[in-house]
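Justification of resources, computational component.

The compute hours requested in this renewal are based largely on the per-chain cost of generating structure records like the one below. Each record pairs the submitted sequence with a full structure-token output. That output is archived, and it is also reused by downstream analysis tasks.
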Amino acid sequence: MKLQKPWPEPYTINARSPFGPRKHPITGRVTMHHGIDVAMPVGTPLTAPADGVVVHKGNGGSGGFTLIIKHAENLHTVYYHLEKPSHLSKGQRVETGDLIAHSGNTGRSTGPHLHMELRRSRRWGDTMDPVPYLKGSPSVTPPPLKVDGRLGRNTWKAWQTELKEMGYYKGIPDGRPGVMTYRAIQAWSRATVDGVLGPQTRRAVQKKLGVKQDGKWGRITISELQRRINNGTL
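The structure output for this chain reads:
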């Protein structure tokens, strides 16, 4: 997943505070830096780097005012030292580019800046380097699906991801289909949008995939779906 920079131009990542081991600016000891720092004035607007949902809103401690947004099953962005608590509420959905908070200098900070982390989960320390995601590196592209004709969680998640990129799906790709997923599939396949995965929707999908329209999703239908997802021709 490619992430947009949540901070505006012309601010850039501090070369002395990248992700990884560094000399701590307060203690002077070499410790793991779990995020990246971007110096900017207090009150600088920050925007959502991708669609997601707010899963945590903190009000103190060494990180100052904090915010965590979940963008995918194993992808969360974290924001420390905010000027004040975010106007967003826990559970609230955001879309790419929405205002999420303002940078500040709260908590254990040596000056006005944003500390941003990328985590697999909400848990502290479960971090990854944000830079490849901000640059859209091919190294973070999901591996291709196994074409086995089985509609399992991986296939559902990949399908949700494709539908999201096309603008049909507004949720977080998690491999767990529900009404939101079914409505997206129906809009994509030009079926009646009612949120019910019935025979008319299954036939519409088969027509879209160019396979036999019998309203039953067997191995032929799902294998064609998997191939098209892998080839980018959905």
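The mean pLDDT is 92. The helical segments are 131-135, 153-165, 179-189, 199-209, 219-231.
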